[in-house]
UniProtKB/TrEMBL annotation:
<keyword id="KW-0378">Hydrolase</keyword>
<protein>
    <submittedName>
        <fullName>Acyl-CoA thioesterase</fullName>
    </submittedName>
</protein>
<dbReference type="InterPro" id="IPR014166">
    <property type="entry name" value="Tol-Pal_acyl-CoA_thioesterase"/>
</dbReference>
<dbReference type="InterPro" id="IPR050563">
    <property type="entry name" value="4-hydroxybenzoyl-CoA_TE"/>
</dbReference>
<feature type="domain" description="Thioesterase">
    <location>
        <begin position="21"/>
        <end position="106"/>
    </location>
</feature>
<dbReference type="Pfam" id="PF03061">
    <property type="entry name" value="4HBT"/>
</dbReference>
<dbReference type="InterPro" id="IPR006683">
    <property type="entry name" value="Thioestr_dom"/>
</dbReference>
<dbReference type="GO" id="GO:0047617">
    <property type="term" value="F:fatty acyl-CoA hydrolase activity"/>
</dbReference>
<comment type="similarity">
    <text>Belongs to the 4-hydroxybenzoyl-CoA thioesterase family.</text>
</comment>
<dbReference type="InterPro" id="IPR029069">
    <property type="entry name" value="HotDog_dom_sf"/>
</dbReference>
<dbReference type="InterPro" id="IPR006684">
    <property type="entry name" value="YbgC/YbaW"/>
</dbReference>
Amino acid sequence: MDDNKTFVWPVRVYYEDTDAGGIVYYANYLKFLERARTEWLRSLGIEQDTWLAHRIGFVVRQVQMDLISPARFNDELAVTVVVERLGKASVVFTQSVHNQQGVLLCQAQIKAACVNLGQAGSGVRAVAMPAEIFEVLKGAS
């Protein structure tokens, strides 16, 4: 992937992100990755709340995550987002978390599916992305 296709979002590790030893609790990496994807979408002009009003959303369907080295309280992190593969109803991201020294701490592959959230009480089902979203993501990948 081209470096100009890599989105980077800064994250600071807060006390609440850590365990008793001051190390980031493993599940909080998922939060960091999610925030970066949300900010990436926002940077592309895709506001999730607008689409949620139309009952369209994205749900994480699959996660592969490798925790390589620990992040610690008060670290400044860089969380990246790169589109690895774009399908009509899903997108696969490669994401990483580095500390301010550039050390790779976490690498992940996330598959998100586009869904129709249906009416209250009805099921959620996978659907093709609206053309407006697909075209923007295609241009960003």
